[in-house]
Amino acid sequence: MFWFGFFASVGFFATIRNASQATALSLSTNDGGVSRRDLLIGGTAALITTSSPLALPDCVHAAGDNELPIAVLGASGRTGALCVASCLRRGLPVRALTRTGAWPPPKIDLRAVGFDGDATTSNPLLTVGACDVKDADSLASSLLGCRAVIYAASASKAGGNSKDIDADGVIAAGKACLTNKVGRYVVISSGSTTRPNSLGFKFTEMAVAGIMTNKRLGEVGVAEMYANSGKSSFTIIRPGGLDEPKVKTIQGPTALEISQGDVLAGFVNRADVAEVSVEMALSSAPNIQNTAFEVYYKNNVVPVDKKYRKYLDPDNGVVKRLSGNTYEELFRGIKANYDYLGDP
Ligand SMILES: NC(=O)c1ccc[n+]([C@@H]2O[C@H](COP(=O)([O-])OP(=O)(O)OC[C@H]3O[C@@H](n4cnc5c(N)ncnc54)[C@H](OP(=O)(O)O)[C@@H]3O)[C@@H](O)[C@H]2O)c1
C-alpha cells in the first residue's frame, strides 16, 4: 500500500470529523518519566511458557516477564516480520502469528533489524501459529499467556478489507488482550488518522479503500475499551511514510523524532518502526500508557498541514519534538492518555 501521498498532502488539514473522534481519547499534559528500569530489555533466552489460563497472573507485567512471549499479529507482513526478528535478536520469546500459519515470509530480509540467526521453530525462542484476526476464537487462544501483543496486520487481498483488519481486527485483538490479561497492546496505526480532510488522509483512503477511516475507528475502539483496563495498557504508534526510506536497516533512536498531536510527519523505515514497537511492548513506563504518538526521521520533518508549520519551531510551547541518544531519552517526554491536538 502507498503512503507516498503522505507528504504530497502537506498543506491542507482540517477539522475533526465527529464528536466521537474528538472525545474518545482525552488530551493530557501529564508528563510521567520513563525510568531506566522500565526500559530495560530482557536479554536472557528462555523457553516459551505455555501456561494454562489458571496459571496466568492477575495481569502480565510487561517489564518483568521475559519468559512469556510477545505475540505479533500480522507477522508475515513487512513490519510484522521485523518485529518478530527484533525479538529473536534480543533473545526474547516471540509468537509469530500469521493468517496462514507460515513463517518466516521468504521475501523479507530479517537482517534489517540485525537478526541473522535461526528463524525456524528449531529456535526455542520462536513459536509460529495461524491466527486470522477476523476470528475472535483464534485471537483468544493465540494471545493466551503473552506478555504483550503487537498488532502489525493490515488490509490485504486475501486477508480482509480495511474494515475487517484495520478497525474490527484491531478492536477484537484488544479485547482478546484484555480477556487474557496481556500487559501491553501495541497497535501500528498511521500518521494523519485524525486528519480526515488532509490530502494525506484522502490519498491513502483512496489507495486502500477506507483504510484511514478504519484505522481511526480501530484507534478509538481500543481507547474506549481500555478506559478501565487496570494494569493492562495500549500504545498506538503512528508512523510516517514507510515506503520511501532507501536505507532499510535500523537507524536507531538518534535518527528518530517523536511528537504527539498528529501535526508533524516524516518518513521512517519498517526496521525502525519494528524496533520502536518492540520497545513499546517491553515497557511498562507510566508515560507511554494508553496514548498515541507519531514517529519519523528527524532529518526531514514537515507539518501535516501548513497551518501547523509553527509546531516545527522547537520552542513552540505546545508540541514537543522529542529526540534522544537512547530510546530511554527519546521516549521520556511522551505523554500518557494523549490522542491528538485539537485545531487551534
Ligand atoms: N505503507 C506506509 O507508508 C505506511 C505508513 C504508515 C503506517 N502504515 C501501517 O503500518 C503497518 C505495517 O505496514 P506494512 O506495509 O509493513 O504491512 P504489510 O506488509 O501490508 O502487512 C500486513 C499484514 O497483515 C496481514 N493480514 C491481512 N489480513 C490478515 C488477517 N485476516 N489475519 C492475520 N493477518 C492478516 C497480511 O497477511 P497476508 O498477506 O497473508 O494476508 C500481511 O502480512 C500497517 O498497519 C500499515 O497500514 C503504513
UniProtKB/TrEMBL annotation:
Position of the signal peptide: 1-21
Keyword 4Fe-4S attached: no
Entry-linked InterPro entries: NAD(P)-bd_dom, NAD(P)-bd_dom_sf
Domain of life: Eukaryota
Residues covered by the NAD(P)-binding domain: 74-281
Keywords: Signal
UniProt protein name: NAD(P)-binding domain-containing protein
Species this protein is from: Cyclotella cryptica
Lineage: Eukaryota, Sar, Stramenopiles, Ochrophyta, Bacillariophyta
